[in-house]
Structure formats: C-alpha cells, structure tokens
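I hope you will forgive my troubling you with a question about protein structure. Could you please explain, in whatever detail you think fit, how the structure tokens follow from the sequence? Thank you for your consideration; the sequence and its tokens are set out here.
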Amino acid sequence: MRKKKKLLAVLFIPSIMLVFLPLNRAYGTERGDVVINEIAWMGTAGGGGGDEWIELFNNTGYPVCLDNWSIEDESYGSANQFITGISGIIPAKGYFLIEKDDDCIRNIPADFISPIMDLNDKGEKLTLKNGNKRVIDVVGRIRKPWYAGVKKKPCYSMERTDPACSGRARDNWHTNKGAVINGIDKKEKSINGTPGAKNSRVPGIKKELVSMRILNSMIPPLVIDYSVPSGAFASIRIYGRDKLVRTLLNEESGMADREPAKEGVQGSCVWDERDSYGGMVEPGEYRALLEVFAKDSGKKEFLFSEPIKIKYISFK
C-alpha cells in the first residue's frame, strides 16, 4: 500500500508542473514577449488630450498574465510608475488595451483603466516591466519628441510597425494616416488609430525569405529558381547591355512569353536564351533581375541581380 502511494505521488508531481508551466513562463517573460504597440499620447478628437490610451501586443504563442505589471514614464530624468498594478491576461498574439477611463474608446471595453495616466505631449521614455520588475519593453528616449503621432485634431495615433523589432528605433514607428482605423471616442468621432486591432502598417517583406538561384548549363534552357514569401509578388527579367531582353515573370499576364507573377511560392522559370522577338541572343554577359513587390501596397521592396554568361550561340 505504501509503495502505491509513493507511485501516485511521483505521477502527481509532474502533472502539477505541467499544469503550472505556462503561468511560470508568463512571470519569467523574456524581453520583447509583450510590447507597447500603439500610443495615443495626443488623446482623441472628441475627448481631447486627456483621453489617452496605450495598447500592448503579445508576441508569443501563449497567454501571458499581466498581474502587477507596470509602465514607467521618464521625460526629464526621473522615472515614475504612472501605470501600476496592471491585472489581466493578454491572449496569444492578442492585444491589451489600457485607457485613462473606460469611455475613451466608447465601443471597445478597456482591459485595464489607469486614471492617473498622463503622457507628456513633448515626448518621453516608457518602460514596460513585468510583475518581477524585469524590463520587458522600452519605447522612446528622454527629452526627445515622440517618434510619431499628431496632436492636432482629428488626432492620429503612434503605431509600432513591427512588434518584433525594437521600440527604441525611430523608424519602427509610424503615424496612423486615417485609412485603417478602429473604434470611436466618447463623442462618437472616429479614432484615427487601431486600438485592439492590427496596426495600419505592417512590416515589409523580410529579405531573408527572398532568394534567386541560377542553374546555368551549356545547353538551353537556363533555369532560375526563386523563393518569394506570402504577401509578395515576384517579377523576373533578363537584361543585356542595360537593355531589357526578355520578361520571364511579370505581374501582367496574357503575353505568350510571360507567366503571371507568383505570390508567396518557391518556383522556377526557364529562359531559352531567346529575346522577346524569338531570336537567339548573342554570346555575352546578361543579368537576371528579381524584383519583389508588396501585395498590399504594390511597392517594390527588393531588387536582386545575378549575372549570366552565354558563351555559345545555340541553334536549338
């Protein structure tokens, strides 16, 4: 009987550890797991400068307990915990909204209310700390203006571009332009921000997810392998002596020598060493250009160039 009790105890202890592992991980949060994602330091158009709010974003794939977390502000050299005793759970890849009062954003309930929130319009440094007083995220710099946002009505919030990148980098912040918005203020005017939702501008195409490799051979066709992440389109063209020789892959379709652009794929296209008119190209140096465009904006994000040497004329 005693041996059975010991066996049950051994089985029971690991079960407890498994149950409480996510909670322990939450309090041992690593820097950047949760970040300050959006700041309405300017308030709202209807509520004025006093209706401030801050949005947090959870970068991790599990819920994080925010009990006893705090945000310190530092504008003139002295740090103050102006948001203290935060409580609640921020969901995996989710948002947590801190408002000065629950009516700042009328149609979106606050996750936490901080009546003493008072952001300096001239800018300040914000430090997010967990329940163990460990620094999790830092935004801004002392005695420096806010990185983005507009105070003048109708007021535009300051949004983080990439939550996975540093909050202290100026170029990782942008001003909401009013094209992608969410919520209304206490006077039912639209909020030029995205509280509780994805920010209006998202990170661009990551360069490391784009590649091009040329498989050169003595006999045509020449094969070009390429990789393009989801959310991007690829265009591949052949140039010789600074002139366009052939378009192999393009956003446009319908021409005999073109394939439609491919989005978010690993693929190949072939060049039979002919120009756009069907004639064989002469021996010499050519270049394959891979252009990568963002799907949402159409903006060219990257340009890759690889050399090609044609040594012999092919009569194929």
